Amino acid sequence: VPVSRDRLLTATDLRATGLFAVEGSLAAAAAHLDLFGVAVIGFITALGGGMIRDVLLGDTPPAALRSREYPLVAAVGAGAVIVVYQWADHIPGRLLTGLDAGGLALFAVTGAAKALAHQLNAISATLLGIITGCGGGILRDVLLNEVPTVLRAHIHAVAAALGAALTVLLLRYGRSRPLAFAVGALACVAVRMISVELDWNLPQLGR
Amino acid sequence: VPVSRDRLLTATDLRATGLFAVEGSLAAAAAHLDLFGVAVIGFITALGGGMIRDVLLGDTPPAALRSREYPLVAAVGAGAVIVVYQWADHIPGRLLTGLDAGGLALFAVTGAAKALAHQLNAISATLLGIITGCGGGILRDVLLNEVPTVLRAHIHAVAAALGAALTVLLLRYGRSRPLAFAVGALACVAVRMISVELDWNLPQLGR
Amino acid sequence: VPVSRDRLLTATDLRATGLFAVEGSLAAAAAHLDLFGVAVIGFITALGGGMIRDVLLGDTPPAALRSREYPLVAAVGAGAVIVVYQWADHIPGRLLTGLDAGGLALFAVTGAAKALAHQLNAISATLLGIITGCGGGILRDVLLNEVPTVLRAHIHAVAAALGAALTVLLLRYGRSRPLAFAVGALACVAVRMISVELDWNLPQLGR
To answer: Looking at residue B153, what DSSP letter applies?
Structure first.
């Protein structure tokens, strides 16, 4: 499948974009940014990871700039948050975690799959899955002058790594793409959600 | 016009580079960075936005690295600040705002025009105008460990969006390039300067 | 020499990658990041500069993603730190400085040489040497939410600039590549180490 006409990839990408647009905007609204800040952060969270992926693969201009659908989906997501937030008493933390897990999982899968389509090896494809999944959130956190969540709560990257690696494995062993995408994404979401419930953490080094 | 030989684009780019080199260096000097920090920040502010633009468009190496003129202009701008600052009692805020508005406007216009020349759609061209205009300042603020001005004072991005959108509109409707560049840049500068005078702000969301 | 089969370049790159992986992981462990944070920071420090270089040159996907050796070397470096750090009482500052100086020097040289191989001019090649040498550390510092060392302690960039400029000069005057690489790297290491011993600093501007 030529990468530029890969419908499954684009559909998965757009879903991830929508989830991250909503999650990013909600987090920005909760942090009391103004209207425009909410929209900007929503866009960056939604489009950042895929743009970093495409720049690294040399697939430029990135899909998010080549197609009208990406900014449109991001705008709808951020716009919905801006409207709904006026009446919301409270954003449940679990909603944010769920949106974040979904976007992370779908982007981890598209990052890994697109890397394989560009002939990268399995290790690099997994790395690119992590970068694509975590990239939007990292950009957002850096711009908000915070240490990225991915460094404070490593489980993001672990979950993305697992999802990306499973996708790579299944695609390499000739499984169908929808299956590989679904298994990778579900594994990533599962790890991410369970870690929150169980409050997993890794040990610090030394004393 | 082949993008690489586009004289109007290059001339506009170089003017923006010079304005941002002076503005960035002045801001760094006012923040008490040392000599080298002033030069580095001047370079990053001046060259960052255009480099991000060119990387996103896949026009690599970026113009700022292909041509000797870009680093030369940045060096002259930063050098002038380093010399003059020794005798300056005080940097007027309005001077910084003016330099910033000029660089923002010219880069917003070249970002939008270059995106169209690479066959991007109108929305993406406007987005790229914003990214090009704000990119140098964002890079600078991130490196100085500050929340980028563009997130605190949204008017930057609004002004850049207006300038870029007007440029796109005029070029799409077949107006001459000098006209489209001039109208876009002037609109951007006007919004940016007026907003400072009137102290415009957008409302926060929720309570 | 076709850039993609340039053995001396790759060998130098891999050495720089290893040095920075160890240095980055050690610094992260000393900052009390958890196990995963140490590995992530080790990877970013080791692979970041070269990836920025390759993206700017349009040589994508970057070498660090095209070849299995780069992530492998980074993993070995970070893994060694994670194992050894359990028993280390104390990380001598001079060890960190030495590792950092070595990685900086080797990356400054490969950045400059690869830029020349892509037909960039001498000024841009020197700039790219600085960016390649300092890029990994800058990415790391930005992610850890600190003002990059390169801005606080300019000597990094000065040393990288000297090493890169010497390499460019020797290559332009037809000297052999091993000689140009060695002289550039040694000059960079020398300046970096001596500056620490003598506690060099540049003056601030103004009052």
So the answer is: S
Show the DSSP H helices in A31-172 as ranges.
35-57, 63-66, 69-85, 93-117, 122-143, 149-152, 155-172
C179 touches chain A (CB under 8 A): no
Let me know the angle formed at the C-alpha of B181 by B176 and B186, rounded to the nearest 5 degrees: 130
Question: B55-108 pLDDT, tens per residue?
Answer: 999 999 999 999 999 999 999 999 999 888 877 767 787 888 899 999 999 999
For the beta carbon of residue B10, count every other beta carbon within 10 angstroms: 17
Beta bridge partners of A204: C34
Asked if the peptide bond before residue C61 counts as cis, ω within 30 degrees of 0, the response is yes
Give CA–CA dist C171/C189, Å, rounded.
19
Residues of B in contact with A62 (CB under 8 A): 56
Q: Which two structure tokens, joined as six digits, stand for B178?
A: 């000098």
- A73: tokens are 């989906």
> Does the distance separating the beta carbons of A203 and C61 come in below 8 Å?
no
> Which residues of C are less than 8 Å from A57 in CB distance?
60-61
Residue identified by tokens 């720049």 is A55
Residue (of C163, C159, C170) closest to C194 by Cα position: C159
Residue tagged 């499984």 (tokens) = A175
**Taking chain C, what is the end-to-end CA distance rounded to the nearest angstrom?**
52
Q: Are A171 and A180 in contact (CB under 8 A)?
A: yes
B66, B64, B62: which is closest to B43 by C-alpha?
B64
Interface contact C207, partner A, CB < 8 A: no
Tens-place pLDDT, residues C29-87: 888 887 888 888 999 999 999 999 999 999 999 999 999 999 999 999 999 998 888 77
Per the DSSP assignment, residues forming a β-bridge with C34 are A204
Rounded to the nearest 5 degrees, what angle is found at the Cα of C111, between the Cα atoms of A62 and C169? 140
* Three-point CA angle A41, A5, A114, nearest 5°: 60
Give yes or no for A143 touching B (CB within 8 A): yes
pLDDT digit of tens for each residue in chain C (207 aa)? Answer: 555 568 999 999 999 999 999 999 998 888 888 788 888 899 999 999 999 999 999 999 999 999 999 999 999 999 999 888 877 767 787 888 899 999 999 999 999 999 999 999 999 999 999 999 999 998 988 888 887 776 666 788 889 999 999 999 999 999 999 999 999 999 999 998 888 777 766 555 554
C149 close to C141: Cβ distance less than 8 angstroms: yes
Nearest CA in chain B to C58: B60
Chains in touch with B (3+ beta-carbon pairs under 8 Å) read A, C
C199's CB contacts (< 8 A; 6+ apart) are: none
Hey, how many other C-beta atoms are within 10 angstroms of the C-beta on A138? 23
Q: What six digits make up the tokens of A83?
A: 């409207």
| pTM for the whole structure | 0.91
Give, in order, the Cα–Cα distances in Å from C119 to each of B75, C31, C123: 22, 41, 12
Question: Which residues neighbour C108 within 8 Å (Cβ) at sequence distance 6 or greater?
Answer: C129, C130, C132, C133, C159, C160, C161, C163, C164, C167, C184, C185, C188
